[in-house]
Design goal:
single chain; 239 residues; alpha+beta; Cytidine Deaminase, domain 2; five-stranded mixed sheet; 9 helices
Length: 239
Amino acid sequence: MPDHPDNRHAAPGFAEAPHYHGHRERLRARFREAGAEALTDYELLEMVLFRAIVRRDVKPLAKELIRAFGSFAEVVTAPDQRLAEIKGLTDAAITEIRLAAACARRIAKGQLKERKVLSSWSAVIEYCRTAMAFATTEQFRVLFLDKRNQLIADELQQTGTVDHTPVYPREVVKRALEWSATAIILVHNHPSGDPTPSTADIQMTKSIIDIAGPLGIEVHDHIIVGKQGHASLKGMRLI
């Protein structure tokens, strides 16, 4: 039987595991015993990469990804083309990173659907930040609510450039009518990181309110998210 690639330099009669196998098991044990909070961003990223890159020490790669993008959240939400620029990051590894981001969004969305949205505002903010805060282009989405403030649907309406997303107020209200929604929450991100609303953000929100109000649809809020936090137009008394 030919030597396993990882054992070809071992002494005769011994199957010596590569040094990183022990590191991986220790990391997994720490995760099981103490949870994710016990791991740094790059260690958590190492665990994401384990399945895709089996026979290589991925610690240097994980550290390089954190250095290049800034944090675990920014790595898993980075565009594929940016990830592909990182030397040593395989297509399979990029898929695993995408899976981590998809799992986070699905969990956040599931938690949101289980509760009355307005009685769990922190869940709304957490979901919006998970879905959009680290995106590199502007996105505009709408949360459609029923009369009990339960989430009917969450739709990404538009994707724009790094600093602009075209939003058509009548299309937003038309979609709310199609869902039979009685209220909506508007959400978009600022890729710059600063969630401070612009004059255009405020004017667009007021235009939607003007069209939605006479049709019995309330605009509960417009939330802007970014790496530095979030802003609520209603909380700031701008609408």
